[in-house]
Design brief:
Blueprint (H helix, E strand, L loop, with lengths): L22 H38 L5 H37 L14 H6 L7 H9 L1
The protein binds zinc ion.
The site of zinc ion has 8 residues, from α4.
Length: 139
C-alpha cells in the first residue's frame, strides 16, 4: 500500500486577506524545518558524547581540588540545560513538520483559527496565532 500523500498546500489554513499556500512556500518552510531538525540532532548527539566523555574523565580524575570540581559540575549542568533547550526545539520542529504532512499546519493550537502565513514564514514553529500568543504572554 502506498503511503498517504501529503495534503495539498492550498488546503492549509490562511488568514483572511492572505493568498493560499503554494507548494513552493510550503517546500521552503519544510526545508527550513528539516535543516533545523538535522542540525539540532547533530548538536545534541555531539553534546551528549561530549558530556559522556567528560563524565568518564571526572571519574578517572579524583585528584581535582574542590573549586575545579565545582566548575566542572556547573559547566556540565549548563550543557545539560542547553541540550534540554535543543531537544525542545527539535520536538517543536518535528511537530511542525508532522503538521505539514497531516494538513493541520497553521491551525492555532488555542483558538483553532489560522495562524497566518506571514507569521509562519517568520516563525515556522509557531503553534499559536498572534492574539493567542499575546494573551499567553500577558498571563
Ligand atoms: Zn489563536
Amino acid at each position: 500500500m502506498a503511503a498517504a500523500a501529503a495534503p495539498e498546500p492550498g488546503a492549509l489554513p490562511v488568514r483572511s486577506g492572505e493568498k493560499p499556500w503554494t507548494e513552493a512556500e510550503i517546500e521552503k518552510i519544510r526545508k527550513e524545518l528539516q535543516a533545523e531538525v538535522a542540525g539540532l540532532r547533530a548538536d545534541i548527539a555531539a553534546a551528549e558524547s561530549d558530556i559522556a566523555d567528560r563524565l568518564g574523565d571526572a571519574v578517572g580524575d579524583a585528584g581535582d581540588d574542590q573549586a575545579d570540581a565545582g566548575a566542572k559540575t556547573f559547566q556540565r549542568e549548563h550543557e545539560l540545560a542547553l541540550t534540554e533547550n535543543q531537544r525542545t526545539l527539535l520536538e517543536t520542529s518535528e511537530q511542525a513538520l508532522a503538521r505539514i504532512e497531516n494538513g493541520t499546519y497553521g491551525v492555532c493550537a488555542s483558538c483553532g483559527k489560522a495562524i497566518g502565513k506571514a507569521r509562519l514564514q517568520a516563525f515556522p514553529r509557531a503553534t499559536l496565532c498572534v492574539s493567542c500568543k499575546q494573551r499567553e504572554e500577558r498571563r
